[in-house]
Design brief:
This protein is α/β, with parallel strands linked by helices. Helices cover 39% and strands 15% of the residues. The chain binds magnesium ion.
Length: 358
């Protein structure tokens, strides 16, 4: 038996679609993560917990979901599963009240958000620079020191790439870099020493996520803002990042950290500590209402370009001329082509067990 879940940019595990039906005949949709493991959590724990409850009480339901999975959850794919349910409940809340999630959050301060694009092929920077995005982020996760090379040689090479990127996009648009947790403290500091005049908006996840001592030292000394959080979960995790000054730019992923309920709390924490928030994949429609309604600065709003969108989710606004529109339709403004979902059947429990045995 071959089991699969809808293809996604994170193909090794897959995203999940959660639908919450009510007895009033309204359905809310959300997308989370965790592939079939995430679906298993939804089906065996979260669904039973929600059946018969008033879906309007989203925050207390979130707490019940978190508490009921605490023994094996708290982070990772369980929170990715909870994220999908929570987003479905927020979508449902909007549909029931016939209003958009951005209005539920207090109303969009801007109806169009400037976007930044992540550039995976650094050699393509000159071509990409012609696009009208407000910011450009070089993905440097593949840039590692050569085995027989020095830290200085490595840092020179990275700095050269960033200098060329700055020259390509000009002085006014934002430039960022993402090391995807691949460098150590010494390498990171060597790079920063060479690029402090490039006006980088941030350096993202230079160190492994658990190197809290390294991040604390880095943030204290670095003239370049240090970003991270796409691999952090729950507002509790983000409060730790803020209180211990481990990051200066927070990048929660609403489909992973615990859904909209937790993203709202992250915005409150960021306001309390004066930190910038730039949600991971922020130009995807699940984050747009929060960016538009909740951001308090201190920097410009910026929505990260999304990943290739799932064909069964309709309603994602496209990026045009460096801006993405915040949907004003009920809920998140998402439409689901349910006919196409049947192309990806989830296994019954018996099928699942049979698969595990074979
Ligand atoms: Mg990243």
């Amino acid at each position: 038996m071959t089991l699969t879940s809808p293809d996604d940019w994170r193909t090794s595990i897959g995203q999940i679609l959660v639908a919450v039906d009510t007895d009033a005949g309204v359905t809310g949709y959300g997308v989370g993560g965790g592939g079939f493991a995430g679906i298993h959590v939804v089906r065996t724990v979260l669904r039973d917990l929600l059946l018969g409850k008033d879906p309007a009480h989203v925050e207390s339901l979130w707490q019940e979901m978190f508490d009921s999975t605490l023994a094996f959850g708290q982070k990772g794919l369980v929170l990715m599963a909870i994220s999908g349910v929570d987003l479905a409940l927020w979508d449902l809340r909007g549909r029931v009240e016939n209003t958009s999630v951005s209005k539920l959050l207090g109303g969009a301060k801007q109806n169009r958000l400037p976007t930044y694009i992540t550039v995976w092929d650094n050699d393509a920077m000159d071509d990409v620079a012609a696009s009208p995005h407000q910011g450009f982020k070089l993905h440097l996760g593949g840039q590692l020191p050569e085995e027989d090379g020095s830290t200085e040689m490595f840092a020179d090479r990275v700095a050269d790439q960033l200098q060329r990127a700055r020259a390509a996009i000009g002085p006014d648009r934002e430039l960022m870099a993402d090391a995807w947790m691949k460098w150590n403290l010494e390498e990171t500091q060597a790079v920063i020493a060479r690029v402090s005049d490039l006006n980088l908006s941030w350096l993202e996840e230079p160190l492994p996520v658990h190197d809290e001592a390294g991040y604390a030292e880095l943030v204290e000394k670095s003239p370049v803002p240090i970003a991270g959080g796409e691999h952090e979960y729950t507002s509790t995790g983000f409060r730790n990042l803020a209180e211990r000054r481990l990051h200066t730019v927070l990048q929660p992923d609403v489909c992973w950290l615990g859904g909209m309920t937790e993203l709202i709390r992250v915005y409150r924490i960021a306001a309390e500590f004066g930190l910038r928030v730039c949600p991971h994949r922020g130009a995807e429609l699940w984050s747009l209402p929060a960016i538009a309604a909740l951001d308090h600065g201190p920097a410009e709003l910026l929505a990260e370009s999304g990943r290739p969108w799932m064909s069964w989710v309709v309603g994602q606004p496209s990026i045009e001329n460096g801006f993405v529109e915040v949907p004003d339709r009920p809920g998140f403004g998402v439409e689901i082509d349910e006919a196409s979902i049947t192309a990806y059947p989830t296994p019954s429990y018996d099928e699942w067990r049979k698969c595990q045995i074979e």
